[in-house]
Amino acid sequence: MPDPELDGVRCLLMRGGTSKGAYFLAEDLPADTAARDDLLLRVMGSPDPRQIDGIGGAHPLTSKVAVVAPSQDERADVDYLFLQVMVDRAEVTDRQNCGNILAGIGPFAVERGLHAAGQESTSVRIRMVNSDSYATATFATPGRRVDYAGDLAIDGVPGTAAPVSLEFADTAGSATGALLPTGRAVDVLADGTRVTCVDNGMPSVLLNAADLDVHGTEEPADLEADESLGARVAEIRAEAAGLMGMGDVSRTTVPKVVLLSPPRHGGVIGTRSFLPVTVHTSIGVLGALTVAAAVRVPGSVAHELADLDDARAPGAHMPVEHPTGHLDVTADLTEVGGRLTTASSSVLRTARKLFDGVVFPRP
């Protein structure tokens, strides 16, 4: 393998949904996990709150990496490994998926020649390695080239771009083994807080914001500045993770804690999502799919707070409200062996190629 410090590493910087990340071919990175993670920390500029000596954006939403390879799975065309590179500490984790970065995987596969483009549009079947689950990305390729220009606007991203349709399979329980990891729609924690533990691609702990004496409509920065709230969220997260069978999560990014509130802008439900400390300026794709699935679970905290008047029919879009707007998703449930699971999930996202070239890690 070439010397990364002298020769650099091929990298495509892309916005995927409301995140931004560095996309790599697996063959361009070290096969050894420790060596790979060390290289990525130096590429992104971690640990440093500004990531000044790397290409990271000094925020969890812009310090992300996708590693892509041809798939040996007959159900997929490419394998996608998501890696969250911590900003302020020397740590890289693969404990979660990222549905926003996923929006760029299909276009990246075409850009790097891993998948042939169709004459007008292309569908790429993707195995999400983190959870061994599957998604299909469909996007425009007029003249067999990825077209990033389009008219779809998504909240949290300025301007418009071409749509990327993401349809999911096998997301329910992808990290924990069940849509409802505890087997219950509601769990009551030691302090009396009612939570719904749910996993439709993103292990999450959902609770009524009012139970923590907040409205659930606050700006993310205001929630982050409330130290007593942060401490309580951390306690809830740790206890709920134990109920979900996830063990010690003190150094992981999952499960997420999501504060819920009644919708205020025509959506199905309001959200504020902890990452787990920083509060998301919008909401992750898989996080929104997980909230939407919980909305359809009778008796859940989400179901109690949701406005389902326009989202009762199977396949109906469910606008999940977040700090900068809303995210339209679908999530339909079915019962298998006496347990609820996800029948189908989908979302429309956009992606855009920002820079394609060679990145040089710090020594």
From TrEMBL:
<dbReference type="GO" id="GO:0016853">
    <property type="term" value="F:isomerase activity"/>
</dbReference>
<protein>
    <submittedName>
        <fullName>4-oxalomesaconate tautomerase</fullName>
        <ecNumber>5.3.2.8</ecNumber>
    </submittedName>
</protein>
<comment type="similarity">
    <text>Belongs to the PrpF family.</text>
</comment>
<dbReference type="InterPro" id="IPR007400">
    <property type="entry name" value="PrpF-like"/>
</dbReference>
<dbReference type="InterPro" id="IPR047687">
    <property type="entry name" value="OMA_tautomer-like"/>
</dbReference>
<dbReference type="Pfam" id="PF04303">
    <property type="entry name" value="PrpF"/>
</dbReference>
<keyword id="KW-0413">Isomerase</keyword>
